[in-house]
Amino acid sequence: MKAELKGLDGKKTKDITLPRQFDEEFRPDIIKRAVLAVQSHKIQPYGTFKRAGLGYASHLSKRRKEYKSSYGHGNSRTPRKVLTRRGLHFYYQGATVPNTVGGRRSHPPKAEKDWTEKINIKERRKAIRSAIAATMVSSLVKKRGHTTESIVIDSKIENLNKTKEVFTLFTNIMAKEMKRVEYRKVRAGKGTMRGRKYKYKKGPLIVISKMCPLVKSSKNLQGFDICIVSDLNAELLAPGCDAGRLTVWTEGAIERLGKEDLFYQKAKKETKK
Q1: What is 2-43+121-259's CATH topology?
Q2: What sign does the CA torsion over 67, 70, 72, 78 have?
Q3: For residue 112, is pLDDT > 90?
């Protein structure tokens, strides 16, 4: 597969050959598994207070002459707490057990539960390769709502150290996409109180070859993500399990992808007998 290499002015400079990762078969089922596995590692453990609903002095006695006995009152055998009393006549209310008002939960969430999902190494690599190939399929990119296709750009972009320069560059190259990612909406519900007040559009993913000034200068662009090519994962390439994210590949990232043959199983060294 070949692609156009664009300069910082957005004009074509030459054609380059893409590495074999871009020829991978599109497998949305494996991509979904890999994305969910990544997301499972971000779940924060939660659980109830271990003594929740057990703080009552509940009592149960069906003996005939025992103090505070409920014998002969027509009550079911449920632990109860005393609400009021008149002499030796007690007025009860169910407590402690799950079938009562204010009682404990029968199976509350446990903080020690392990939420992480596992995925085979070969399967994870195949999912990443499939998601990489999907970034260059224009029909999948447009299906996600992006207004332009993925591009390969000159590695000089990695040296931009000002956000204004990066913003101007992408405004010139993909004006409609920059307009699309400006969208911001206040979330409905309690998420507004939990650090996720706004909902944004997912914008381009910038894939670079190494740590560079562009990492900081593009950090504040709304909807953008940036990642070193060797650190790619399925969630970055296919947010929400939908493959075909608009991706800006630098020339250096493409070269490293092919030279190091990333996300393919490395051949084992033969051992001498």
Answers
A1: Ribosomal Protein L4; Chain: A; (3.40.1370)
A2: negative
A3: yes
